[in-house]
Automatic annotation (TrEMBL):
Signal peptide: none annotated. Residues 17-85 form the HTH gntR-type domain. SUPFAM superfamilies: Chorismate lyase-like, Winged helix' DNA-binding domain. GO terms for molecular function: DNA binding; DNA-binding transcription factor activity. CDD domains: WHTH_GntR. This is GntR family transcriptional regulator. The keyword Coiled coil does not apply. Keywords: DNA-binding, Transcription, Transcription regulation. The keyword Transcription applies.
Length: 264
């Protein structure tokens, strides 16, 4: 498939303009007409350059631009692939749901690779956020989260050890374990920021060092206002969309006044 797309002379058949833009539009049209499909590997940079009679700098510039747009993705050490763009995961920002629930409700298969499951003394920041008394311990749950077998996020959760004394009790879902302990959160505050991944995290997520990601902090609360979860996550920028429903402030007020209340 890809060999026919990238054959010698084919670049000159593409639009006019700078070579890297012409290579980009050739790749885009290959994707549009199905000659390039999600997860297809592109030829190595040097082969593309030789086949098309352009410099490696041009090839690199073209690929980098398409990676930044999410059209392609680069895996550290294994090359450049067509993104599974139709397969991006969606994380709702207006409901308090778990990763497992979100993935299952969109027909995807959630997976977990444990990086750390232990009890520990909290850092000063964690003790403050969780409102822990002196001497209290925390349970740490750090995991690589996978969707249909692909790594999409690294999540490092800290919960009071009083809620989950045995970290091994958490299996596929932290929220299921909290629910089993009668401590499912009812409210959370979440903060998102754009970051570039460092080498170690990029390797876990199978992307290039420096790839874009979304850093998310979630502080989740129990009905009595105490904090039950402090989680820091890094979600792959090329794989995840965060979706929030917005309404006019005046309408939202109206709905709230007319709608049911949370209190039973
Ligand atoms: C989501 C939450 C995370 C929570 C996890 C529980 C975000 C950014 N993060 O991934 O804070 O700990 O769900 O999922 O949404 P689980 O029950 O599948 O372990």
């Amino acid at each position: 498939m890809t060999a026919s797309l990238f054959k010698a002379g084919s670049l000159s058949e593409a639009d006019d303009g700078p070579l890297y833009l012409r290579l980009q539009s050739m790749i885009r049209s290959g994707i549009a007409d199905g000659r390039l499909r999600p997860n297809d590997a592109l030829p190595a940079e040097r082969d593309l350059a030789t086949n098309l009679g352009v410099s490696r700098v041009t090839v690199r510039k073209a690929l980098r631009g398409l990676v930044d747009e999410g059209v392609l993705r680069q895996r550290h050490g294994s090359g450049t692939f067509v993104s599974r763009s139709a397969d991006r995961i969606e994380q709702p920002l207006s409901r308090l749901t778990s990763f497992t629930e979100d993935m299952r409700s969109s027909g995807r298969v959630p997976g977990t690779r444990w990086l750390d499951r232990s009890t520990d003394r909290p850092s000063a920041e964690e003790a403050t956020i969780l409102g822990l008394p002196t001497g209290a311990r925390v349970t740490r749950l750090s995991r690589l989260r996978l969707v249909d077998g692909d790594p999409v996020a690294i999540e490092a959760a800290v919960v009071p050890a009083s809620a989950i004394p045995d970290p091994l009790r958490v299996d596929a879902s932290l929220y299921d374990a909290l629910a089993a302990a009668g401590m499912h959160p009812v409210r959370a505050v979440q903060r998102l920021a754009a970051i570039s991944l460092g080498a170690a995290e990029a390797a876990l997520l199978g992307v290039m060092p420096g790839a874009a990601a979304v850093a998310i902090e979630r502080i989740a609360y129990l009905p009595d206002g105490s904090v039950i979860e402090f989680t820091r996550s890094h979600y792959r920028g090329d794989a995840c969309d965060f979706v929030a429903e917005l309404s006019l402030a005046s309408q939202a007020d109206g709905f709230e006044a007319a709608g049911p209340t949370m209190e039973g």
